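Long-time lurker. I teach an intro course on protein structure, and each term I like to show students one example going from raw sequence to a predicted 3D structure in token notation. This year I'd like something fresh instead of my usual example. Would anyone be willing to generate the tokens for the chain below so I can use it in lecture? Attribution to the forum is fine with me.
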Amino acid sequence: MRMRRILVGMSQEKLGEQLGLTFQQIQKYERATNRISASRLFDIARILEVPIAYFYEGLDEAGDAASVDTSFDYLADGQASAEGVRLNRAFQRIGDTNVQKRIVELVNALADAPSED
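-- Reply from a regular --
Happy to contribute to a lecture. Here you go:
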């Protein structure tokens, strides 16, 4: 939820206003301190303009949370950084899928390159 909220440029306060909640409640949802009801999750998905299935990516068919790929947490943290948000927004504006694929190849090559430190 946090990653999507940041990607669309929405503050916790703004999301809370649209849901009739305080930003503190949004923080509790994002930190998994409080559970989100199905109806509330539906409202959040509508506001953040994603299908409700977006929030279930990474679960197996049985919904087993133990099967969630923990590397997603690392990915979410990186995408939620200022640089990650800027990169994601710019990448989404590229209309040519071939160009997007080439950018991914470039980034992977840079990530795999030996450090010169």
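Some talking points for your students: The first helix runs from residue 2 to 7. The chain has a mean pLDDT of 81.
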